[in-house]
Amino acid sequence: MRILGLSITAGFLMVASSLASDVDMDLATARGVVEKQITAFLNDDIDTAYSFAAPGIKRLFPEPQRFIEMVKRNYQPVYRPGNYAFGRSHSATGGKTIALELLITGPEGKDWRAIYILNRQDDGNYQISSVRLMKLESSAI
After folding, report:
1. pTM score, whole prediction
2. Which of 22, 28, 30, 90 is the most buried (most CB within 10 A)?
3. Cα–Cα distance for residue pair 41/137, rounded to 1 Å
4. In the predicted model, is pLDDT for residue 69 greater than 50?
């Protein structure tokens, strides 16, 4: 009986460990997508930046040029960040949706919080489906 209990406990621990590492891997992948898009913005690589946008965003902005104009107009701290650091993150719906907090020092040294929502697509890749930008009153980074 005791051996059976230990075997069951060990099995639960192995499954929990595997699930935790899958979530960690998903979060790392999602962070990589955000960082690659920011790098593309900084390099004025419009096509690459646009490639990380989810299908819903691409329906709203069907050409990369229209997308980048919207980003420049509404998301300047994301388009031209100074320092930035990832904050909290959350995975939901079995890893299909990930929310990432990004703390940014934007143009003119102002601090911002960006909440990125990424969705795993049918091909397994994560794409950015929305970004909510909020100005911070005190220094975040």
Report:
1. 0.81
2. 30
3. 25
4. yes
